[in-house]
Design brief:
Bound molecules: nickel (II) ion, manganese (II) ion
CATH architecture: 4-Layer Sandwich
Structural class: alpha/beta
CATH topology: Metallo-beta-lactamase, Chain A
Shape: globular
Helix content: 10-25%
Order of helices and strands: EEEEHHEHEEEEEHEHEHEE
Length: about 220
């Protein structure tokens, strides 16, 4: 059994008893809705989708406190390594094998937040479970390939609109990905991305074969 815990905005913890802890896009100290404190976070790996402040967030401090390895695109990982942190660089389309399984960087259509870089998403193989974290992105039809190449247990999708896909585009994304379960994020952090996740859930379950789980900040999904 594994747990996916939502820490608000685009931050998730993937964990299992006695297994490595993977933290995604830790935007904690400046997010009033974050249910944890930076000092409480344990992380073996920190995955960063791009360098915008609401994704890079507290990654450096968490990495320093835990000796975590940062996994990200080459530009972000190389800067982290130059800043004295453990980092593993990858790039779009590439997969690395890790003690818990593997990490593949996927396309994401969004700004990099760092010079010369590119935003990404991740497909994680975590002890045989396949999880897609889309990062910040607009909709693109090659999401079909992501689900085809790695049949997904979980797809985590942004729904807040303005900076990323909104609800209807994210429903289309869910129909492309065909994951067993879909979980929304990147909404209700600020007025600009206020959205009703119940509307997303209803549409996903009406228009796709996936079921949708809404996690409040601090909530967990066991799979
Ligand atoms: Ni962004
Ligand atoms: Mn963002």
């Amino acid at each position: 059994m594994f747990d996916l815990t939502f820490w608000g905005h685009a931050c998730f913890l993937l964990s299992g008893e006695g297994r490595e802890k993977l933290v995604f896009d830790p935007f904690i100290s400046e997010n009033q809705l974050a249910p944890v404190k930076v000092e409480e976070i344990k992380a073996d790996y920190i995955l960063i989708s791009h360098a915008h402040w609401d994704h890079l967030g507290d990654a450096y401090e968490i990495a320093r406190l835990n000796g975590s390895t940062i996994i990200s695109s080459s530009e972000i990982a190389k800067k982290a390594a130059a800043d004295g942190l453990n980092a593993h660089p990858q790039h779009l389309g590439g997969r690395s094998f890790q003690p818990f399984g593997s990490v593949k960087l996927t396309l994401a259509f969004h700004g990099a937040g760092i010079e010369g870089g590119h935003a990404c998403g991740f497909v994680i193989d975590y002890y045989g479970k396949k999880i897609y974290f889309a990062g910040d992105t607009g909709l693109f039809s090659d999401m079909k390939l992501i689900g085809e190449l790695d049949p997904l247990d979980l797809a985590l999708l942004p729904i807040g609109d303005n900076f990323t896909m909104g609800i209807d585009d994210a429903v289309m994304a869910a129909s492309f990905l065909q994951a067993k379960t879909v979980i929304p994020y990147h909404y209700n952090t600020w007025p600009l991305i206020e959205k009703d996740p119940e509307e997303f859930k209803q549409k996903v379950e009406q228009k796709t074969k996936s079921n949708c789980v809404i996690l409040p900040p601090g909530g967990s999904y066991t799979f």
